[in-house]
From TrEMBL:
The keyword Lyase applies. The keyword Lyase applies. One of its GO terms (biological process) is D-galacturonate catabolic process. Gene3D superfamilies: 2.30.130.110. One of its GO terms (molecular function) is lyase activity. InterPro entries: GD_AH_C (IPR048332), GD_AH_second (IPR007392), SAF (IPR013974), SAF_UxaA/GarD (IPR044144), UxaA_altronate/galactarate_dh (IPR052172). It comes from Sutterella wadsworthensis HGA0223. Keywords: Lyase. Pfam families: GD_AH_C, GD_AH_second, SAF. This is SAF domain-containing protein.
Amino acid sequence: MSPRPAFDALQISALDNTATLLKSVRISDEVVVGGQTDVLRIKALDDTPFGHKISIRDIHSSDSIVKYGEVIGTASRDIPAGSHVHVQNVESNRGRGDMAEQNTPASQLESCEEVFTPKVPDRPIINARSLCYRGYSRPDGSVGIRNLVGIISCVACANDVVVQLSDIEGVACFTHQQGCSQTKPDLALIAKVLTNLAKNPNLGAILYVSLGCESVPTEEIVRQAKTFGKPVEFLIIQKEGGLTQTVEHAKAVVADLKQKIAAAPTQHPFNTLKLGLKCGSSDTTQGLSANVIAGKITDIFTAAGASVVIGETTEFMGAEHIAARRCVTSEVAQEIAKRVSEMEARAKAVGVDMRGGQPTRGNIDGGLTTIEEKSLGALAKAGSSIFQRVIAYGDNVKQPGLVMMDSPGREPEMLTGLAAAGCNLILFTTGRGAPQGFPFVPVVKTTGNENTWQCLQEHIDCYVGKIMRGEESYADATQRLFDEIMLFINGDLTKAEQCRYNNSMNIYVTGPTI
């Protein structure tokens, strides 16, 4: 690809009235805006940081703010050309406690048939159908890319026993803050997640640890887990005689489980993989680089018959009409709209204003102004693939293709949900730098923010920011990231695995602790 002309800001769509800065500018600087046929030259009216937006024409109060060719908010005052466009002069139209009856997905998508126009996905950059990888067969037919003994805490009260076993080689420990004094629906959800975590193919055997008086039905969880055909053991602290005796017994159990699952990896077809998608500590570089390349990885996986799971329901707000055009049926489109509407309604019902929570303070510092802008960039991770189904949080994925999981955006709950869905690998895009991994699912980190790459190379696996400046083609960046992913699938350790930054785990609940 021939390099684009040098410019200071990128206009993504010809419809946009904003451009994203590729460098910081000062008042009175001339800003060269590229990305479309005509190059614009605008005088900066404000000091504006890298990754933030400037107006490329005069915008009047109450006019729409447009990026990616889509509305991302409304001007709260007049914004002259060259101004910094951000929270000081833009209002979101979504997730607002003061607009509880307006701008909901249900009103926007009363008839999904009107926007349901699925097309054939883009041809993937890499044909992976004939590829194989080294993995571990499980009794249910799934394949793991790691072969670990999972030690799963059934309740927060058992965490202290479980963490004392985390230094054992070949062991992955899962702890959380749930399992007792919760509503019946939440206990059922926790039980489902704890059961499906045991089904994750990266675990060859499981040891559950409980206190003994928790509300969650531990005996039923263990019974269900045993139906997966893996070795499953269960220890109860109150029966073992306390922490010390439970830990010592657990060590003997783990040693036996490790012997039972000892095996060399064998070759398996690419279509047996399940990839999870996540973005975190987001900034505007993601929608221009890392999420775009992640989308091309998604297209490679789905075209080869593998499964891909995307979640973070709040980050469909303002972009659900785009997702609706990419669903296999109008029923799937309606289901996406319903899940987004329900997530938004939970906040609105109590008069809560999502602004400040989504986007987060870090998102705002990184240039993301509204949840609509964040969502439009986040949806790029889905590439051009067709949504095949919507599943509830913690459900196990059974079909190939792109699946939406109804889930929150925060890392502990989202990564856990992807693991329960059966993902054996997670691709995590980050702008400002999110170091989190997960105990038994390798998490691959990529960023397009050069400052983050330089500062946090201990945590980032791949840098793709050169595509924003035209210094690398999308095809080359995709190939580099895919090659690294294949190394991790075949046993190389991700940065998160190497530094054991893997304690970001919890289970999503919607009700109170009682």
